[in-house]
Every structure is written in C-alpha cells, then in structure tokens.
## 1
Amino acid sequence: MKPGVRALGVAESYRERDGRDRNRSTLAGAVVRADRVCDGLAYDACTVGGTDATDAVIRLVDEVGRPDVRYVLLGAVAPAWYNLLDLSRIHEAAARPVLAVTFEASDGLAAGLEDAFSGTELEQRLATYRALPARRDLTVNDETVYVRAVGLDPDEADDVVRSFTPVGGRPEPIRVARLAARAADSYARSFE
C-alpha cells in the first residue's frame, strides 16, 4: 500500500467522573496515513447504552470531510455499553469500505445483550448485531485481531489491516483515535 493512503480510525473513551456515571461517551476520529502520519482529528459523542453510535460515526466521517480517506476503521462494534454499530449503514453513508477491528477473543455479544436489555431494546440490538458480517481472526505482527468488513473482500481487508499496523496488533488509525478520545475525555473532565 502506498504511504499516502489514508484511513479514518474511530475509537471511544468513557470514564466515570468523580465516581459518577455519565451518560455520554467520547468518540474520536483520526485520519492517519499508511506511513503513520496523523492528518486530522474530529470528535463526537454517543449515549451510553443508547442506539446513536452509528449516527455519531457517520457525523465523524462527514465532519472530517476528506474524500482522500479510503477506509473507515472502527475500534469496536459495540461502543458505549452496547450502542451497536451498523457497519452497512456506515459503509453506505461513508461510500468507502468499513472495517471493525477488535482485539479480544469473544463468544459474541448475544448473551450480554440478553442480560442487559429486554423487549424492544433487546430485539433492536440483536437485529443490528446479527446483521454484522462474520468476525474473522487475523494474525498481525504475531498478534491476533478480529476483523469484520463491509465493502471489500476478506483478503483485501486483511491487507488493509496489516498495512495500517506497522507494529503490534492495533492499526495506527484506531490507536491514534483512541489516544485522542482519551485526551478529549480528560480535557472535558477538567470543566466539570
């Protein structure tokens, strides 16, 4: 992959403030080139336990407003306590491939959703969860990550993840977005 190819990484940060739960989670978007140069940041928020994370990610893509971004890399499929992302909707709105890259083995989210929600809230989340593409494991730099992709075939998705992961197992756009989200969360806390 050419060094100037860009991806938008999206990650979240949520921290309790002074022992109090908050109802918002900070999302950050980081435009990062394949050669590890950060080329832009944007911020938004979503509701903890809500259903607005997909809209927040779409707003981040719009806010960045970068037609040169070729991929959207998400650091979760269920940020902000099961605020599930609809990867197909993000792909359609962004008009570019979307990859969710996660970092822990899991038996899936269904049992957790069933413990946390009921009725319509549960059914809506289960429908979004079941519509996600299959999660595949991928070895990157001797680490295992788990990838879901919309808008490109599995081999291409593997190439994208590896190209944006020069060291370790976390793709650089997601790593930078996570750092930015944590910094923004800490900064916002200073005003409370």
## 2
Amino acid sequence: MHPLLRFTLDLFEPNQPPAQVEKGPVAPKKAADFSHPQANREVSLGQTRVAYAFNRGQRRSIGFSVSVDGLAVRAPKWVTLRDVDAALQAKASWILRKLHDSRERQTRLADQHIVWQDGAELPFLGQTLTLRLDPEHRFGAAGAQLLTEDVAAAPDQAAQTRQVLCISLSRQATPEQIRDVVQAWLMRQAKRIFQERLDHFAPLLGVQWKKLSLSNAGTRWGSARVDGSIRLNWRLVHFKMSVLDYVVAHELSHLRVMDHSPRFWDTVRTLVPDYAAQRALLKSEAVPRWD
C-alpha cells in the first residue's frame, strides 16, 4: 500500500488499545546504605546510596558533617539542589570514608558495652581494669581502691600483673550501683590527673588556667575559654596518657590561640610533637558505653 494512503487510513481508523504487557511483581525500593534519622533527601555516591538530612540556613557555602546519625548537609538559601548534588559528588570520597569510619566506630562501641558485674573489664589509661566486688571492704579507701596483683604464669613465661578495682559492694549489688561507684572513682581519678597535666603543660606555654570542670559530653572531649576555664571529659581516662596529654595540650593552646589556625597547631606541636597521631587515636579508638 502506498504510504500516503496508509497514513490517510490511519487518520480515520479507530484507535486500537496497545497490547497489554504482562508485568511481574514490583521489586521493593532498596533501602539506603546509610540513612540519617532525619533524612529528607537521597543521593547515590558511586554504588552507595546515602539518605541525608538537608537544611538551608544563613551561610555562605555548602557544609557537610558526618556524625553517629549519618550525613547532614546545610546550604545557603540561594544554592540550587543541582549545585548541592554536584557538591556531594565532588566530596563523595570524603563523605563515604567518614560514613564508613563512623559505622566501624559504632560497631566497636557496641562491642565495648560493659556488663556491670563482678569480673567486668574496662579500659583505664590504656590498660585493662578488672572489677571485683569486695563486700568485706578489705582495703582502706572509701568506695573503691585500685590494686595491682600478680597473675599466675607458666614457668617459662615472664611474671605478669593486672589492675583490679576493688569495690565495697555486696555480691547482690545491682548493675546500676556498681556502675555509679566505678564512675565516681573514675571521675576522681580524672580530676586528679587533669590537674597534674594542666600544671605540667601550662608553664611550658606561659599560660595560666583558672578553673577545671569535668564534662560528660557524648562527643566533645574538651573546651577552653579566654578567662582560663578548662572543661575536660572525664571519659578521657579510658585512653592512654599520650592521648590524654594531647587533649590537655590542645585546650591549653587555646589560651594562646582561640582558633584552629596553623599558628594554633604549631602551638600544640611544641607540647605534643606527635599530636596528629594522638588525635587520630582519639578519633579511632572506642570507649565503653555507659548505658
């Protein structure tokens, strides 16, 4: 048939419904690999899907932050969503690395959960501390006392010791009672150690701290104010002394430089030359969960 005639017939013939295509079950949408609790946008970074919390605010540039919750993005009001997506792709490697690091840290934290009972173990100044209930209170200190005792070793092995924290509680003590006694003891140790290290480092910088407060913050390890007030997280006593010294030096350095400029880090370096390694340990090592 001539094409023109076929075209004319098509104009007058009734429309035929398209053939029905049999459809199988619709696959459910795959959940994001990383999802923020307040996620309202999603992006694919390579093969990884990330649901993130997006907000606009009074700022000059797009900002990214990765916490235990996941990725949060803040952008100026005038920035388009296309620009946000482009910025996410440009920072993809950094974002994915931080998200994976955060997830690994949370896994380690879960493994560090303490069961508050006789024989429980927790880190103290980088070493393992064993809890022992001592209802007869066979030591002189009030509440708890740290002891060092020998550990039986094979004849061909060197002698070993372990640290034991004796607690004057009965065998029927509740987990909450044990936890509270241990926390009180750790906080006393923290304040004593912090004061010693502040007094050690402050003269080296030519600064003077005025007041020390203990913090119980979830993620912040310390802070300093221009008036000489220092706040340090008591949980730092879980880390070894080199890490603790880095945090003390960090806050004292703020009494000289109240920002994180190159001059500030040069100041920290005068006290802790390997501060970068200690800072990395602070970020990577897990501390016990106190819930």
## 3
Amino acid sequence: MSSAGRLPTYFIPHGGGPCFFMDPPMGGPGTWDRMADFLRSLPGDVGEKPRAILIITGHWETTGLSVTAGARPGLIFDYYGFPENTYHLTYPAPGDPALAGRVADLLEDAGFPTELDAERGFDHGMFIPLKVALPDASIPVVELSVRRDLDAAAHIAIGAALAPLRDEGVLILASGMSYHNLRGFFANDTRIEMISETFDAWLVDAVCQPKASREAALIDWETAPSARICHPREEHLIPLMVAAGAAGNDAAVHAYSDVVLGKKLSGFRFG
C-alpha cells in the first residue's frame, strides 16, 4: 500500500482458458511461465493484504451492470475443449455481500444502474488468475460485470465511481488480455506478430500518459494501429478502462511485458 494507505489497481492477463493447469501446457513448456510469475508476484507487489478483492473480467457481460452478491459463489467453467482435470479445479474464495452492496451503491450514485446477483458464480477470468496469484483463496472476492455495449468512456467512468474502494482496503483487479484475437493467437504468421507488437507499443504509451491524455487515448482506442485486428471484439480490453478510471491521477507502471505464442502482451499497475 502507498504511504496514504491507498491500494493500487491493476490490469492483469488471465491467460488462455485454464492454461496454467494443463499438462502438457498449451503451446508447449514455458509458454505461460512469465505470466504465471507475474501473477504470483501480485501479493508482494501490493504489500499489505487486502480485506477484499473486486475483480472485473471480460467474461461476464450484462445490459446494465451486475455484481456477485452470494456468500459462497461457485465456479463457472466457461471454457471448452480442455482436459478433463481442468473442469474439476477449485477456488473456494468467499464472496462478500456487504462489499457487493457497497459497489452497487457507488455505481448507482454515479448513475450506473447495478443489480445484485446472489446466484452468479465466478467465471474463469476470476478463478484462473487468482488461483495462481492467491492459491489459498482466503480473501473475499466480488466480481463485477462489464456492460454489453463495451463503451470505453462509460467504463472509465465506472472505474472512477469505484475509486473510493481503494481507500477501504479493496484491491481492484481488471482481468483481461491486451491482445485477444483467438484466430490470430494460434496462427503461425509473422505479420500478426508484428501487428501485436505495434498495438502493444501504442497501448503502453497510452496507458502510461498522465490522466487526461491516458483517458482520451483509451476512449479513442479504436484508432490505434491495428486495433481491430488485435481486438475484433473488445470485451477483453474493456476491463483496462475500469482500472484506469479507478486510478484517478495515479501514474501507470508497465508491470508485465511478455510474448506468448508470438503475440505481445502487457499488464499494468496504477498507483
């Protein structure tokens, strides 16, 4: 935590399906090692243990906003065609109904209608990275959906509405992927590799600018080089907007940089 007691906020990669729990690994040995190392580093990077986590993933889209409100959410195995063992993973982190209510109140006060969903479980955008980062599953977790319209400016404003949680011991994690073109991911094509590098360079520069410039760039992300090739649909990029909005004036650090299956990937810490 900072000297002021404010927790940072992060945009983290969650990998490809249950990639960290497959033998042999998808893509071969070592493919996901650096990403796993980054996720394992998060507790030490944060410092003091958060009282709870609010996670936003690209795997839960709703018309408005919705937040998990159950005390013991189950897991949703929303990936397909993977080894049988990956459908028996566990992550028994408790929910936090009181935090869910606080999240809904903050969002409602900012003009974003939000539903409490006591039945919704945790999707793999939550439990896969957290099983690597925090395997003891002892910290309560609440998951927030993204809006189906995937409006970048709205999600930055959603993040800004949630910023007070950082002073309340809540770690805000945005879980997605800075490159998410599944067809391109598994294509052995050097042109696609160069495209991912070009977009990633733009993204790092945009995110690491001061607040006003950062937000303007992210709102206009579709004009970035090869933006729609790297994100044919932006549900895995939109969580970054929430993290950036929650960051306020805090600077960004390019906390994770890697090449996976030939594609450049990044993660960020704010504050």
## 4
Amino acid sequence: MTAPTKADLRAAALARRDALDPAARIEAALVLAETFPLDLIPVAGRVVSGFLPIQSEIDVRPLMDRLRLAGARLALPAFPDRKGPMIFRELVRGAELVPMGFGTYGPGPEAAEVFPEVLITPLAAFDARGNRIGYGKGHYDRALAALDEKGRRIAVGVAFACQEVDAVPHEPHDRGLDFLLTETGFRTF
C-alpha cells in the first residue's frame, strides 16, 4: 500500500475541518486565546504575526487581540506584487486592510514592513512530530527560512485537533513547527 501524499492528507484534513459545527468553531477560537502560554512564549515588545482566517480556518483574531493586550506588536502577511515572496506588515488598529489574494486581507503598502519573531502559522494538516502541511504554495516555508536567516523564529501552528494526521511526508525545505495550539491543548516539539 502506498503512503498518502501531501495532497491526499491535505484534502482529508480540510474535509474534516470543513465539517465542523459553527458553534464548535467559535468555542475553539476562544479556547486558543485563553490557553496561549504567555509564560512560555513571551510576546511583550515582540512582533507577532497572525493571519485573517479564510475558508474554514480557525479564527485567530481573539488570540491576536490577547497578544496585543499582552504587549505584542501585531503583523499580517502581505504579498506586495501577488507573485513574489510573502512579507509581513504591521497591523495597527483602524488601518485600512486591502485584498491580498487567496481570499484574505492585509495592511496596505503604507504599513511598515516588519520581521516577526513569533509567527502564528495557519496549516491544513499537522502530525505529532511538528510537521505541517500548508496549502501547497510554500509561502510560510519560504518566509520562515528567510526570517530564520536573521535568527531562529518561533513558529506556532494553530489548527483544529481534527486536522491531525498520522505522518506528514517531510521534505528538506519544510520548516517544522516549534509549538502547536488546538482547542484540545498546547504541544511543544
């Protein structure tokens, strides 16, 4: 029997995620915000990137607000030319958000480019070793590799527990997670 491909694992995990009850999604988002371990991952004075949820992703906006209240400077991914590498721009309250492609929004070109030290990372699937499957474009792997050149960054994957798979096929360019947060708990890798 052939091992499932990343595409197979992604499709199955996303189908499970899509099937979640709307009330459970809201509760999960609140649990993330309540259980993020600020004692283990201090954020005061640090740039922390989050993301605005697309499709059926877990909503990290309550978590981002908690991190802001704890002193983090927030950032969101941005795609300046829609084809080039993903960068991060500072997110300030009241700033206009513009379409970034992929169904999401981010700060426009007037927002400062920043270099996050902690990245709240979306994913399609994950395994117990801290490997993740994204959406197949490699944006986060490349962004983390570029940021890690300036000093190792902290990658915190966030997902619903139902997105876990037995094993993610790992390739040399794949950047693993340092931590994972779901509605069922926090894991260190």
